[in-house]
Design a protein that fits this description.
The structure is a single chain. 0% of the residues lie in helices and 59% in strands. By secondary structure, the chain is an all-beta fold. It has a single domain, classed as Jelly Rolls (Sandwich), CATH 2.60.120.
């Protein structure tokens, strides 16, 4: 796993990842093995877009070498509200990814309850 020296950067590419958040933990941002890049995650917002009183339980993790380390675990997110999950930069090494999920606390349909927006830079 190569880690670029971020003092000697040749390329910085801005990116924004978006996704519907479901009850199944899924990848939002993936820095593939062998990419030769480090990803600087700048912001991550998750919004509960449900118009009624359905509260979501939001979880976000950093997956590294098969182990998911929680950034946020089962945070209550009320209807029509937004959670600022990451507002200070974190870095993803090669092979790392950000995983997200949201479970409704009162609804039977837990899919498409929330949406995620993540701003990041791919640095090489």
């Amino acid at each position: 796993m190569a880690q670029p020296n971020i003092v000697s950067v040749t390329t910085i590419r801005g990116n924004t990842a978006v996704a519907a958040v479901t009850n199944v933990s899924s990848n939002l941002v993936v820095n593939s093995d062998g990419s030769g890049q480090v990803y600087k995650i700048n912001t991550l917002y998750i919004s509960n877009i449900h118009a009624n009183s359905n509260t979501a339980l939001v979880s976000v993790g950093l997956l590294r070498t098969g182990v998911e380390y929680k950034i946020a675990a089962n945070i209550n997110l009320s209807a029509n509200s937004t959670l600022d999950v990451i507002n200070k930069a974190i870095y993803l090494q090669e092979g790392d990814c950000i995983r997200i999920s949201a479970n409704a606390t009162f609804a039977s349909n837990t899919n498409n309850l929330c949406e995620a927006v993540c701003s990041f830079e791919a640095i090489s």
